[in-house]
Amino acid sequence: MGLPRSLKYFATFVDGVNYVGDMPEVGLPKLTRKMEKYRSGGMSGEDQLDFGMEALEAELTAAAYMKDLFATWGERRVGGVMLRFAGSLESDDDESIEALEVILRGRFNEIDFGKAKAGDKTELKYKMAVAYYKLSLNGQVLIELEPRNMIEVINGVDRLAQTRAALGI
Known about the structure:
By secondary structure, this protein is mainly beta. It has helices spanning 67-70, 161-167; strands at residues 6-14, 17-18, 25-27, 33-38, 47-53, 56-62, 81-90, 97-112, 124-137, 140-146, 151-154, 157-158. It starts with 5 loop residues before the first strand and ends with a helix.
């Protein structure tokens, strides 16, 4: 029996700029599906019908006022800002390290400057509306999502290929 691999270190990059030391917390998107309860005659209970994904959102916490991040505010392209989250997954029972990488494209839709208080650390929060999501572990892509282009690849299986073909896109 082994110990869990925990995220022990991470680095955040926005449009290629490295924010090591400036980004103490990153809230990666929660993956959720829009489900509706359904029950019809002859059914002894409810099923839930899948109507696709809910909107993806990420949140960054910055420990400083950063000009490069402010420059992305008001980006007009839906996937105009790229965020790269690189993490080191480590276990305390062996010396192996797994590389976690999450690539997001989107745009910031909120900057929360928080409260200024003498003697307290600076903390700004940025929310990103995410248009593209890719999660890889040791270089293997496990999840790739781009709702606008009907891309939903899970562990190498393109779950929307037949749907795109049926629609002629």
